[in-house]
Specification:
Layout: H1 2-27, E1 42-45, E2 75-78, E3 81-91, H2 98-101, H3 117-120, E4 139-140, H4 150-163, E5 165-172, H5 189-198, H6 207-213, E6 222-223, E7 229-230, E8 232-235, H7 243-250, E9 266-270, H8 276-282, E10 287-289, H9 306-315, E11 319-321, E12 323-324, H10 348-359, E13 365-367, E14 382-383, H11 402-422
Length: 423
C-alpha cells in the first residue's frame, strides 16, 4: 500500500507541476522573452526509434506493432525518401477553419499589446479577419486550414517526409486546456499518430499518452547511454520553475524523484539566458535546447554561443540540441517586435543557422518550425498572396517547396558528417 501511495503521489505531483509550468508559460509575457503568449506549453518528443513498414496503413485508434528501440537506427525510408530520426521538427495542431470547426481558430489571432502601455498606445489593436487577413506574414498553400482536416494532415506528413525530418514535436496542454487563442486539441492525437505512421514518422506526448498509445507504431523511445529506452520531453519555459523544485523530481535523491519509476524519462530544458545552463544542471535535467529561431534574441538562440553550450553539456554529461529556423517575423501579431525580425534572404539565413548547428556537432537538431505561421518560422509550403489591404511575403524566386528541400539537403549533410564524428 505504501508503494502504491508513493506512485500516486509522484503522478499527482508531476501532473500538477507540469500544469503549473504550462500555465505560467502561457500567461506570462515578460520583457525578457516577449514570446510567452504563444508559448507552446510543454514540448514533447521521442528520440530514436526502430523500423516500421512503409506500406502499413491503419484506422484512427488502431494499435500498431511496436518497433525496436534502437539508438543506432538513425534513418528509415518513407514514401517521400529517406528520413532521419535525429532531425526533429516542431508541429502545431491549433488551427481551425469554418469548414471543419465552425470558425477560424488561430488564423484570426489578436494583435498582442506591448507590456508597456505607452508603447502599446502607438500600435494597432484588434483581431485578424481570415481568410484574406490572417495572423501571419506568409500565406499557406493550403489556405487557412483546419488541423482536423484529414487531407491537410496527410499533406503535412508528406511535406515533413519530403524535408527528411523524422520526428514530429507536438505541443502539449492538459486535457481540456488550450492556449489563449486556441481550443483543446487532445482528441487530434490518434489521427496525427496514424498519419505519421503511414509515413514512418515518429510522435510522442505526455505520460498518459504513453499509457494510451505506447503500443502504436509511431511511438518510440530513446535509448540512453545507460541502455534504458525512455521517452524524451522538451519542456518549454522550464526556467519559470526554480531548479530546486525540478531537482525534487529529476534528481535520483529527490523527495519526489521519478528516476527509476514508471515516469522516468529524458527531460530537456529550455536555455534562454546563460545562467540557465547551471540551473538546468542543478535541476537534474538531461539536456537543453534553444527553440527560438531569431539569432541573437537570447543567449541560447545565438548561434555564436552554441559551441560553448555544447562544451558545457559535454563536460556535464548533458545533451545539447540546437534549434534552427528559416527566419523570424511575428509583426502580424506583435506589431511592436520588428527588432527581432530575421529576414530569410532567400534561404541563406536558414543555411547559416544549419551550418552553425552542424559546427557544434550535436547528436540531434530541431527545426523551428514546420507550421508556426504566426512567428514566420514555418517551412511548410507558402504561396504569393495579395489582397486589397495586404501583400504577404513568399518564397520567391524559389518555389513553395524551397525550405523543405533545404531541410532535406542539410539533414543528409548532418548525418553524413555525424558518421565521421562518430568514427
Amino acid at each position: 500500500m505504501a508503494r502504491l501511495r508513493r506512485k500516486a503521489c509522484i503522478a499527482l505531483f508531476l501532473f500538477t507541476l507540469f500544469i503549473f509550468g504550462t500555465m505560467m508559460g502561457l500567461r506570462t509575457l515578460k520583457p525578457s522573452d516577449g514570446f510567452s503568449d504563444l508559448a507552446p506549453g510543454v514540448e514533447l518528443l521521442p528520440m530514436i526509434g526502430g523500423k516500421t513498414s512503409r506500406d502499413a496503413t491503419a484506422s484512427p485508434g488502431q494499435v500498431h506493432p511496436a518497433g525496436s528501440n534502437t539508438k543506432a537506427v538513425l534513418s528509415n525510408s518513407s514514401p517521400e525518401g529517406t528520413i532521419f530520426y535525429d532531425v526533429h521538427i516542431f508541429y502545431y495542431v491549433w488551427y481551425g477553419s469554418p469548414h471543419m470547426d465552425g470558425k477560424y481558430i488561430h488564423w484570426d489571432h489578436i494583435l498582442v499589446p506591448h507590456w508597456d502601455p505607452k508603447i502599446a498606445s502607438s500600435y494597432p489593436r484588434g483581431r485578424h479577419m481570415p481568410p484574406e487577413d490572417i495572423g501571419a506574414s506568409f500565406y499557406p498553400e493550403l489556405n487557412p486550414y483546419s488541423s482536423r482536416d484529414p487531407d491537410v494532415l496527410e499533406s503535412h506528413m508528406e511535406q515533413i517526409g519530403a524535408s527528411a525530418a523524422g520526428v514530429l514535436v507536438l505541443s502539449w496542454y492538459p486535457p481540456g486546456v488550450a492556449d489563449d487563442n486556441g481550443e483543446p486539441a487532445e482528441d487530434l492525437v490518434p489521427a496525427v499518430l496514424d498519419a505519421a505512421y503511414r509515413h514512418n514518422l515518429k510522435v510522442q506526448r505526455h505520460q498518459h499518452f504513453l499509457r494510451l498509445y505506447g503500443d502504436h507504431g509511431a511511438f518510440y523511445k530513446f535509448t540512453s547511454s545507460t541502455g534504458k529506452s525512455l521517452p524524451l520531453f522538451y519542456i518549454y519555459d522550464s526556467y519559470l520553475t526554480p531548479p530546486e523544485s525540478w531537482s525534487e523530481l529529476l534528481s535520483a535523491t529527490g523527495s519526489h524523484s521519478v528516476r527509476g519509476s514508471a515516469y522516468d524519462s529524458i527531460f530537456i530544458a529550455l536555455i534562454v539566458e546563460e545562467r540557465h545552463k547551471h540551473d538546468i544542471l542543478a535541476g537534474g535535467f538531461d539536456g537543453m535546447y534553444t527553440y527560438f529561431a531569431s539569432n541573437g534574441f537570447s543567449f541560447g538562440s545565438s548561434h555564436q554561443n552554441w559551441k560553448a553550450i555544447k562544451a558545457f553539456c559535454d563536460g556535464n554529461n548533458l545533451i545539447f540540441i540546437p534549434s534552427v529556423g528559416p527566419g523570424y517575423i511575428d509583426t502580424s501579431i506583435r506589431p511592436w517586435n520588428n527588432h527581432n525580425t530575421r529576414n530569410r534572404v532567400n534561404g541563406r539565413y536558414y543555411e547559416m543557422a544549419l551550418q552553425a548547428a552542424l559546427n557544434a556537432r550535436p547528436e540531434i537538431v530541431t527545426i523551428t518550425s514546420f507550421n508556426e505561421w504566426h512567428e514566420g518560422t514555418q517551412i511548410e509550403r507558402a504561396v504569393p498572396k495579395k489582397t486589397v489591404t495586404r501583400v504577404y511575403l513568399d518564397y520567391q524566386p524559389h518555389g513553395p517547396d524551397h525550405y523543405l528541400e533545404l531541410t532535406r539537403r542539410w539533414a543528409e549533410q548532418f548525418n553524413k558528417e555525424k558518421q565521421q564524428w562518430l568514427m
